[in-house]
Amino acid sequence: MPDKSVTVDTEQKTPSRNGCALEVSGVTVSYHEKPVLRNVNFKIAGGQLVAVVGPNGAGKSTLLKTVLGLIKPTAGSVTVTGKPLSANRLSIAYVPQTESVDWDFPITVNEVVMMGRYGRLGYLGWPGKRDREIVKECLQTVAMEDFGNRHIRQLSGGQQKRVFLARALAQQSEILLLDEPMAGVDARTEKAIFQLMRKFSDDGRTLIVVHHDLEALELFDSVLLLNQSIIAHGPVSETATVENLRKTYGGQARFLDEAEHQLKEAPSYGH
After folding, report:
1. Alpha helices in the chain (DSSP H)
2. Is the pTM of this model over 0.90?
3. Per residue in 212-228, pLDDT tens?
């Protein structure tokens, strides 16, 4: 992968690593009166690469959608870079699971990435020269600049994920939320995506990543263990212990048998 710097953040400064990028306070979310998230509280510093880990049904995707403002919590609040979410929505970008995308929709790679600019154009705005330059720079960053005129469905799964990363970058947001970006990709693509995420983090962005593979946890700065409520949150080495994982996954035998081995045998992707 070419070692290219992220050069698109010209309109907005990324937060200091010492500042609080995201604060979730007392958030509860219910579907049909059934709680999915219960009194969730955590803070994440700017420039962190954070894994969100938990079993199916733990509320991981719901948490991301609540932080985005797509789901209104029953109780609690979300603060983004010190401001209420309602006043700072452009500070957050989202990379969805590829399974949730309509791949038959007739749209090119350039058009997908340009969608990341719409929030800054306003209702009657039209993309200009600078917007097109930003789209090109974002595609260069994820090594997809030669695919701009290709239909999105003509790409491999890994290429599609890179395009959605480029769309998130085009928003020039301080916080990136990624919902299982490694799902369904091969080891080489997984490594490339991790390297990109680390590059973005080193550049000052905050990344919150729903992730399921314990073998790669050491590549993150911190981990948030979630099962409807926060089980533990902190540096990976201190937080992703077998005891905490047991609490998070509810004693699933197969998982617990493999947990220690996976954590010890975790690969290095150039962190």
Report:
1. 60-68, 109-114, 118-121, 129-141, 157-170, 187-202, 236-239, 242-249, 253-264
2. no
3. 888 889 999 999 999 99
